[in-house]
Amino acid sequence: MTILLRLAAPLQSWGVGSKFDRRGTERVPTKSGVIGLCAAAIGISRENKEKIHELSSLKFGVRVDRPGVLLRDYHTAKSGKTAYVTNRYYLADAKFTAGLEGVEALLHDIDAALRRPAFPLFLGRRSCPPEGKVALGIVKESLLDALRTDAGWEYISYDGDGVYLVRDVPVSFSQIRREYGFRCVEQISAEKQIGEIEDEIDWFKESEMP
Amino acid sequence: MYISRIELDATRRETLRALASPSVLHGALERCFDGERRHPLWRIDMLCGKVYLLIVSAVPPNLLSIKRQFCLPESAGETRDYTPVLTRIHEDDAMRFRLLANPVHRFIENGVKKIVAHQTPEHQRGWLRSKAQKCGFSLQDGAFDAVSEGWKRFRKADGSFVEIKTVAFEGVLTVTDATILRDALTDGIGRAKAYGCGLLTLARGNANEQ
């Protein structure tokens, strides 16, 4: 059983290791971001470690439908009398399909909550509301089968046995002390059609010239 | 007139620096011609993932210095006589084209002359339409578009800062005045010609299919 989420918006931002005045974004939605979105939809409090653990034990994967463009926001902030500059990074015009695989009852709770969220939903950062509907419903297939449809996509990144570690498994979203664990990430790429670029014109070729 | 092309080695540091700051390439091109300054037209083209430098000049360039700085040892570069191609252009011919340009509009604000780049696709298309009349060709709505855009921001050797908006146009044009169009092909269209803008290329291609 897998629940599918549509993550599309003019702006998204999925930070992992952001510190101080440089707030980065990953190229794909993070597990902590998506679990946080689901938790917000259900209305789980930040301190509720048990419930968050239950959510983060779901198997997570994300399909890149449209990678989007990296955008840097020049942003000034003021603290007391001193003004300082921060750089915030966003993915502009990206579209992803995220999937969570696990116990059916929990997936149904998430699905219902996404349609009537307890707290407002946003994609990684408060200033990034989703475009269109987020909930795509629950399907019978496993996570990878559900994501691996034949539509045009670039690659899939999922919880696997890969050697690539990302620290974005939420343990606690508490504003006093946030905690994250590690997860292994694996990637599969879509098979590209090599013929795609064949219609490029060679402007220098004699046979092409007037 | 002559048209030349040489493949650049995009893994070289010098090449990347030159691609980021066109004044480096401008200078390198000046050294390809002996005697008086010739002001050749040039453009960076991508074809099947390779980077090419395309040059249109009144005399054949000596590509040796370009080759030494920015190319693979084995890429030789080619030069072809452009005049026969130019004479084959006739009125009412429909041809596919590509143009990298710097579309701007000029106005006077509070007595100060200003030059500002066109930002929206409508304005950019409008700019090309107005240029088309003066350059001996006509464009049909829907048969051409601004396919990509970007900024070139760099510092010249004297320290002054240059900022240029580049827009790539592609589509199908119809020749209305072959003599004027020939001039446009050899003299370039619009501003920033020293920095890789204004070179128009034509191809028979399959103009009728579009």
Rounded to the nearest angstrom, the distance between the terminal CA atoms of chain B is 30 Å
Proportion of residues in helical segments of chain B:
25-40%
Category from helices, strands and their pairing of chain A: alpha+beta
Give the largest interface pair and sizes.
A-B, 10 and 22 residues
Q: Could you spell the SSE succession of chain B in H and E letters?
A: EHHEEHEHEEEHEEHE
The averaged pLDDT of chain A comes out at 90
What would you say this structure looks like, in words?
- The complex is a heterodimer of chains A (210) and B (210).
- Chain A is of the alpha+beta class.
- Chain A contains 4 helices and 8 strands.
- In chain A, α1 (31-42) packs across α3 (104-115).
- Mean pLDDT of chain A is 90; it is low at 193-198.
- In chain B, 26% of the residues lie in helices and 40% in strands.
- In chain B, a hairpin with a 2-residue loop joins β2 (41-47) and β3.
- Chain B starts with a strand and ends in a 7-residue tail after the last strand.
- The model of chain B has no long low-confidence stretch (mean pLDDT 90).
- The A-B interface holds A 197, 200-204, 206, 208-210 and B 3, 5, 45, 47-49, 52, 54, 78, 80, 85, 88-89, 93, 95-96, 98, 201-205.
Brief write-up:
The complex is a heterodimer of chains A (210) and B (210). With 210 residues, chain A is α+β, with helices and mostly antiparallel strands.
Helices, strands, pairings?
The complex is a heterodimer of chains A (210) and B (210).
Chain A: E1 2-12, E2 22-23, H1 31-42, H2 49-56, E3 59-66, E4 69-79, E5 82-101, H3 104-115, E6 135-139, H4 143-147, E7 155-172, E8 179-189
Parallel strand pairs in A: 2-5
Antiparallel strand pairs in A: 1-5, 1-6, 3-5, 3-7, 4-5, 7-8
Chain B: E1 2-8, H1 13-20, H2 22-30, E2 41-47, E3 50-57, H3 64-70, E4 78-81, H4 83-87, E5 94-101, E6 104-109, E7 112-117, H5 121-135, E8 137-155, E9 161-175, H6 178-187, E10 200-203
Antiparallel strand pairs in B: 1-3, 1-4, 2-3, 5-9, 5-10, 6-7, 8-9
Helix pairs in contact in B: 1-2
